[in-house]
UniProtKB/TrEMBL annotation, chains A, B:
The keyword Transcription regulation applies. GO terms for molecular function: DNA binding; DNA-binding transcription factor activity. InterPro entries: Bact_HTH_transcr_reg (IPR050679), Chorismate_lyase_/UTRA_dom_sf (IPR028978), Tscrpt_reg_HTH_GntR (IPR000524), UTRA (IPR011663), WH-like_DNA-bd_sf (IPR036388), WH_DNA-bd_sf (IPR036390). Residues 10-78 form the HTH gntR-type domain. It comes from Orenia metallireducens. This is GntR family transcriptional regulator. The keyword Nucleotidyltransferase does not apply. Keywords: DNA-binding, Transcription, Transcription regulation. It comes from the Bacteria. CDD domains: WHTH_GntR. GO terms for biological process: negative regulation of DNA-templated transcription.
Length: 246, 246
């Protein structure tokens, strides 16, 4: 291993971080390998444990290594995360099916309620309508929890929608086949999020894990908004991928 | 304000969170408004400060409120974040120009170096080539730091590339106009990240702030990979948006 140098103008923690990063980038330390302990690194480079900790913290934040309580720190497998693509408006079931993955959906609740002001705005609801269906679903891929979705649907557009219908069919196919609607497009935003305790329990990931938050507003050909969806996706095993054409 | 109830089977912190969330959703508490203090909430609902703290922590994690050291907790402005769209392969300058925003780029370093194994793999470099150009750039929008990008370019494809060329022109236009390359498409992945101290300093955001990490591999029409880019985007003022067509 290269050594940090007090003659180098870069901070010591930063030098150590770069040394470890280069070892990972060159597969000298491979995915799953333990990295040397704080004590070993501190002795090897004659630097304080604080300095070592700062270097490792940066590597953790950059996702290059991960800690396991009581076991140590290991090189992360950044290359083999499964990618799911999103460039067309497709339902969850269809996207995963195209990748050959088995999915399940668990409806956590299905409620008819008064829309809050923000939900009304997102759904661009007519003034005389105020009822929305709020559905909370846990999405499961290959027997593992994958995302938690909350979707709001204007009740006047889907008057007879029931939990049973959603349990057995994809929402988009119900819209087309039961209600005869034509989907047009969706606007989707992506933000980073930290999971709440409730969410991390449902997704069976560690508390305060990082996630992606997707918000989607979907339009029908007739101009009405048919859904507003907020979904948190776990990010430890999946990567969101887009193909950009020139 | 509604009150939490010990007769309700939902945990007290969760009830409080839902009450505050509903007030935010209905604009009773508006963006920028302070929410009641921990002490006020604890007295009002006859619950412990710990319980109040847990409810507020969840709201912070969900991005609905934010804390300011020594000042209190305020309702976040989730609606007015600027959106930048990405569905075509375009350079940063072009995307922002189309939104009417002024951009600047600061080159932090420009180096010719040996590729690490991982970079070689990403760039799918021929066996007899090993040199890459590594460029680190700070992207600035309307005088505010916006993203930090590191791009690796196979040296054999851009033998005379210099820092000066990149300072005055977009990379993609250099590829087309100076080298005569035809861009084909890019694969881009998106992951959530926590900023390192170095990154948060450069982006002038609080330490450990959340960010989006984009990795992009861009292909030429001749099949060669022309760039591998890793970029961290601040997420406090911008949202990444995609339009999905059916």
């Amino acid at each position: 291993m290269k050594r940090v140098s007090k003659d180098n103008p870069l901070p010591l923690y930063y030098q150590l971080k770069e040394i470890l990063q280069e070892m990972i980038e060159n597969n000298i330390l491979e995915a799953g390998d333990p990295i040397p302990t704080e004590r070993e690194l501190s002795e090897m480079h004659s630097i304080s444990r604080m300095t070592v900790r700062k270097a490792i913290m940066d590597l953790v934040n950059e996702g290059l290594v991960y800690r396991e309580q009581g076991r140590g720190t290991f090189v992360a497998d950044t290359e083999s995360k499964l990618k799911y693509q999103l460039s067309k408006l497709k339902g969850f079931t269809q996207i995963m099916k195209e990748k050959g993955l088995k999915t399940k959906t668990k409806i956590l609740y299905f409620e008819l309620k008064e829309a809050t002001k923000k939900v009304r705005n997102h759904l661009k609801m007519p003034n005389d309508k105020n009822k929305v269906i709020e559905v909370n679903r846990l999405r499961i891929v290959e027997e593992e929890p994958f995302a938690i979705e909350t979707v709001w649907i204007p009740y006047d557009l889907c008057p007879n929608m029931s939990q049973e219908m959603l349990e057995n069919n994809s929402f988009y196919s119900i819209l087309e086949n039961e209600y005869g609607y034509n989907l047009d497009y969706a606007k989707q935003t992506i933000e980073p999020r930290i999971l709440t305790e409730y969410e991390s329990d449902l997704l069976t990931v560690e508390e305060s894990a990082l996630a992606l938050l997707f918000r989607r507003t979907t339009y029908l050909k007739n101009g009405r908004v048919i859904e507003y969806t907020k979904a948190v996706y776990r990010s430890d095993k999946y990567k969101h991928e887009v193909i950009l054409n020139y």
